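Q: Hi! First time doing this. I have a protein sequence and I read that you can turn it into a structure. Is that right? Here it is:
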Amino acid sequence: MESKLNTTNPDHLTFESGMLQIAILGGIRLEGLDRMRATLKVQVEHLSLRHNLDLYNDTQVEKLIRKIAERLEIGTSVAAAALTELTDELEAYRLKEIELKVQTQDKRKQLTTAEIKQAQEYLKAPNLMCRTMEDIGKAGVIGEENNRLLMYLIFTSRKRDNPLHVISFGSSGIGKTHLQEKVSALIPEEDKLEITSLSGNAFYYFGQQELRNKLILIEDLDGAEEVLYPLREIKSKKRITKTVVVKNTKGETRTVTLTVEGPVCVAGCTTKESLYEDNANRSFLIHIDESKEQDQKIMSYQRKLSAGKIDGSEEHKIAELLKNTQRVLKPVSIRNPYAEQLKIPDEVFKPRRSNAHYLAFIEAVTFYHQYQREEETDKETGEVYINTTLEDIEEANKLMKEVLIRKSDPLNDAGRKYLEWLKAWLKMENKTSFTNKEVRQFLRINPSNQKRYMVQLQEYDYVEKVAGEKGKPHEYRITQLDEYEQLKNGITGILDKIMSGLAGAKKPK
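A: Yes, that's right. Below is the predicted 3D structure, encoded as C-alpha cells:
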C-alpha cells in the first residue's frame, strides 16, 4: 500500500487522510523510541490548528482529537482514525531512518545485562556525587576536585534538550587540556567529537542529526577561531544553516541549504580569557588550579606512574563503569518546584544569563540522580517528569559557589591571582606598601605582564600610588586587603541563607 506520508522535506513532513491535511513541523526525532513528540498543523480547507504533543500519550492524543472535532468541525472518529494512521506511518518512517543511520555510522556499544545492572546500581546507591568525584580521581584525574565534578556534570547535560557548555582557562602548560581530556575520557566514544583542526565551513557539512546531543571538544580555542561563530549559533539556536551553490553532473547549478541540528554540549580550552566573551557568556568558566599544592599532587602522580605503582587496569575499569552509567541515563523532563524561591547574589555580573546557568545546572544534578527520583505524571498534559530535591540544590550550590564568585569579580583570573599573590607577599614580609621592582624580584614575573595587571588593579581601585615622583620608583598599597574574602563570604552567605529558608518551608506544589 502506498504511503500517505510525504517525507521529501524531513523538517516538514506532510500527511493526508481524506479531508484532513496534517503537517509535522520540525520533523520527528530519531532518538527515544518510547516517545514520539511532534508539532502538528492540522487543516481542513481554510480551518487549521497547531498542537504539540507526544503521539504515544493517550491523554494528549484524546485531547487533540476533541480539539480537532470542535475547532475543525469534523467527527471524532475521523480525527482518531487519521491520527492512528499517521502514528503508524511515522513509526515506519522513523525505523527506516534509524536503520539507514545505523548503516552509515558506527554502532553504539551494546551493554550486557550485567553491565546495565552494575551501572544502574551505581546510580541508585547513596552519596552519588561524592562517589562520582572520588571515582573520577581514581580514573586518573589528579586534584581539581571541584572542577572535575563540575565538568563531568556539564558533559552529562549533553543528553538534555538544553545542554550546558564549559570553557577552561589557565596559563600555558598548566593542565587545561589534560583536565578536559581526562574527564571527557569518561564519556562514551559514540557521544563525543574531538576537534583539533576544523574550518568554519566544514562544520556545516556534518549530517543533519550527526551532532545532536553530542559533546564537542575543542583542544585549543586559540586555534579554532573559524568555528567559534557556528558554535555560538548552534549553542543558542540549536541548529545552524548555510545555503551553498552546487553543480550537478551536467554542470547545472542549484542552491542547497545545509542544516546541522543540535543541541550540543561544547567544551574548550584557552589562555586568553578576554578574547572569548561572546562564547564565555554562554558557558561555565572553569579556572585551572595553579597552586603549589596542585603542582605537588601532579608531580607525585607522575613519579608513581614512572615507578610502576599506578594500577592502569583499575583506572580503566572505573572509566568503563562511568561510561556505562552515562549510557543508561535516559532523557527525562525535570521540574524544579523550588525555582521561584531561588536567586543568585546581586553581585553577579550579567545576572540574566548567570541565573539561567544556575537553574540549568541544578537540573543537570537532578538529571544525574534520575535513578533516585520517583517519576510523576502531569494530570493535565500527561507529561512524565521527575522533581528537583533540596539535596540537588545543595549539591549544585557547593559546585557553583566558585563559579558565581568568579562571575562577581571585576578582575580577570590573571589579575585576581596577581593581587592575591601580592597580598600574601605583603603579609609574609610584614609590609604595607611595595614597588614593582620588589614584587618582580619575588614573583619573578614578566615586566609587561606586571604592568598590565597594575593598570587593571588601579583602574578598579584595588591599588593606589602612595609615593614616588617621575624618574623615581613608585610605591603602591592595596586599598582593601580583605575585599575578596568579603566577596566570597557574601556569595556563600546568600546561598546558605536561601537553602536555610527552603529547608524550613513547606515543599511548593
